């Protein structure tokens, strides 16, 4: 099975200059805690609700601070043509729950999450990946 068969295609993005308060409000309204950050067509990072809380508010940044000040700029990605196993292996080794998905031209085309995988794939490896990610340090 390929990543493109299980990924979420309807992906909202944040821009590096977006205020973190605006992004937090979008996350709350959409009931999600993760957004890829793109500058034009280039994926430049990701931001999570935890990034906003810990790197933003926890460090005294105002709600008007730009996403670029709190985002994670080192991004692990997969290609939409990759096998499902490659996403599971990356998630387990990097201990992450969501991966931006790129096409062969490097354009963001979706996100694959453990939630997507657990809802759409009935493989033992999904549970094993969650267990690996959830293990303490």
From TrEMBL:
It comes from the Bacteria. InterPro entries: CBS_dom, CBS_dom_sf, Diverse_CBS-Domain. CDD domains: CBS_pair_HRP1_like. Keywords: CBS domain. The keyword Flavoprotein does not apply. Residues 7-63, 71-129 form the CBS domain. Pfam families: CBS (PF00571). This is Putative signal transduction protein with CBS domains. It comes from Brevundimonas subvibrioides (strain ATCC 15264 / DSM 4735 / LMG 14903 / NBRC 16000 / CB 81) (Caulobacter subvibrioides).
């Amino acid at each position: 099975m390929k990543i493109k068969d299980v990924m979420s295609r309807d992906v909202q993005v944040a821009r590096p200059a977006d205020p973190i308060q605006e992004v937090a409000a979008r996350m709350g309204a959409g009931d999600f805690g993760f957004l890829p950050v793109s500058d034009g067509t280039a994926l430049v990072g990701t931001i999570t609700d935890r990034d906003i809380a810990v790197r933003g508010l926890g460090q005294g940044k105002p709600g008007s601070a730009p996403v670029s000040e709190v985002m994670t700029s080192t991004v692990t990605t997969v290609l939409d043509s990759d096998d499902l196993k490659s996403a599971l292996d990356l998630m387990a080794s990097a201990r992450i729950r969501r991966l931006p998905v790129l096409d062969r031209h490097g354009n963001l085309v979706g996100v694959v999450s453990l939630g997507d995988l657990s809802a759409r794939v009935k493989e033992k490896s999904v549970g094993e990946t969650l267990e690996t990610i959830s293990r303490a340090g």
